[in-house]
C-alpha cells in the first residue's frame, strides 16, 4: 500500500512505472538524413497512413520534395532491418514543420517521437526559438503534438489546426 493510504495514487504511479519500463525496453529507431533512394519508400509511407490521408498525391510537387531533400531538414526513421518506417521534414529557414508521418503498422513503436525530437533539435540548431506546424483539425496528430509540448494557436484559412512549440 502506498504511504498515506492513497491507493488511487499508488495505481497511477505503478501504471507510470510499467509504461516507462515498456517504453525503455523498445529498441530506439535509427534516425538519419533522407536520401534520394528513400523517396519511393517515403511515398509509400505518406500514402500508407489512414489519418490525414493525402487525397491528391499530385498536390505535393517534386520541387517541394527535392527542396526539403537538398536544403531542408528531411529525416527518416528506420526499423531494425534498416527499412524506413517514418519520415519528417522541416524548413530550417522559418521553423515550419512540413511533415511527420509513420506508416500505420509501425505507429506506437517510437518512430514518431524519435523523428519529432531529432527534427526539433535540428530546428533549434538552425537558430530557431520556436517551431510551428499545421495539421488536420480533429486528428490524433494534435494529441501527439500536445503531449510533446505543442499548443494550438488557432485555425488557418484552410481549416488546418496551427500549433507552436518553444525549442
From TrEMBL:
Q: Which CDD domains match?
A: NAT_SF (cd04301)
One example of the protein's molecular function in GO is: acyltransferase activity, transferring groups other than amino-acyl groups
Pfam families per the UniProt record, alphabetical: Acetyltransf_1
| Membrane-spanning residues | none
InterPro entries according to UniProt: Acyl_CoA_acyltransferase, GNAT_dom
Q: Which domain of life is it from?
A: Bacteria
| SUPFAM superfamilies (UniProt xref) | Acyl-CoA N-acyltransferases (Nat)
**Which part of the chain is the N-acetyltransferase domain?**
29-167
Q: What name has this protein been given in UniProt?
A: N-acetyltransferase domain-containing protein
**Species annotation:** Salinarimonas ramus
